[in-house]
Design a protein that fits this description.
Helix content: 25-40%
Mean pLDDT: 79
Radius of gyration: 32 Å
Number of helices: 4
Oligomer: single chain
Number of strands: 10
Strand content: 15-25%
Strand order of the largest sheet: 3-4-5-2-1-10
Shape: extended
Distance between the termini: 102 Å
């Protein structure tokens, strides 16, 4: 008798459990559809990949103004560009003072030297633009320092401030011919021994001046002037692609107001 009651109770409980599961599965899609119907359909069709952080931009603007007030002799311009990054344009004589300031100041602490590169614009009076990228892990922010020079004017080396700048400056000297004064070991790093010229300059030909090949007669690699036979080649200079400035919107660039200090004028001392 007891065994019959146990089997009966087990079957009843199993049927109730199955019925509850069926009811739940039939209700869940309706609840999900109700939740989906409440979503706002007026969303942006082309969402921004990296939205602008207005608080970060405000902090960078304030810091750029502060840097300009502390070093008015060297800072010529400061702005916050797209991507919430601060750019500071300085005089070539202010490379070391500004790098020391950004590294050692408590409100900066840009201790990481990320990169240094050079841009060549032959139409400018000072054709080379030297760009330093710094990172502050303490404040999770980046800064870009820009200065300028020409073919014969040296730039002070950043190695006394950041020892990691040594190989970047050697690369800039090798590829662009920018000379860094007081560099511990300024020599070529990428091109071959005896290479003449600086291949990343805009006036350097893409084909170069010499070619390297193995000579079977002398049984060694020889370097000789380049020879290009182009009687049967046709060059087409019109590009089917749109130019880069059409795809770049610079409307979000925001200038930092800086106080201009005239020659011979002293900065007002705060009492």
């Amino acid at each position: 008798m007891a065994s019959c009651l146990r089997r009966l109770g087990r079957s009843v409980g199993l049927n109730l459990f199955r019925n509850n599961n069926v009811a739940r599965t039939s209700v869940l899609p309706q609840v999900y559809r109700c939740q989906c119907s409440q979503v706002d359909t007026k969303t942006e069709k082309s969402p921004t990949i990296r939205p602008t952080n207005h608080l970060m931009r405000k902090a960078l603007l304030d810091f750029g103004t502060y840097v300009g007030e502390c070093l008015p002799k060297y800072v010529q311009q400061a702005r916050v560009t797209h991507g919430d990054e601060l750019e500071v344009m300085i005089h070539p004589d202010g490379v070391l003072p500004l790098l020391y300031f950004l590294k050692d100041h408590h409100n900066g602490q840009f201790l990481s030297f990320v990169d240094m590169c050079v841009m060549d614009v032959p139409s400018r009076l000072y054709r080379f633009e030297i760009i330093y990228h710094l990172l502050s892990l303490r404040y999770n922010s980046r800064i870009r320092v820009k200065t300028y020079t020409d073919e014969i004017t040296p730039i002070e080396s950043a190695c006394p401030v950041f020892i990691g700048a040594e190989w970047y400056e050697r690369e800039a000297w090798d590829l662009y011919g920018v000379f860094f004064a007081n560099h511990p070991d300024l020599r070529r790093i990428l091109t071959d021994y005896g290479f003449e010229g600086h291949p990343f300059r805009k006036d350097f030909p893409l084909s170069g001046y010499v070619e390297v090949r193995y000579d079977d007669e002398v049984k060694r690699v020889v370097v000789e002037p380049i020879e290009l036979t182009q009687e049967f080649r046709k060059f087409e200079y019109t590009s089917p692609w749109e130019q880069f400035p059409k795809h770049r919107d610079t409307a979000e660039t925001e200038e930092v107001p800086l106080k201009k200090v005239e020659a011979g004028e002293k900065k007002d001392e705060k009492k």
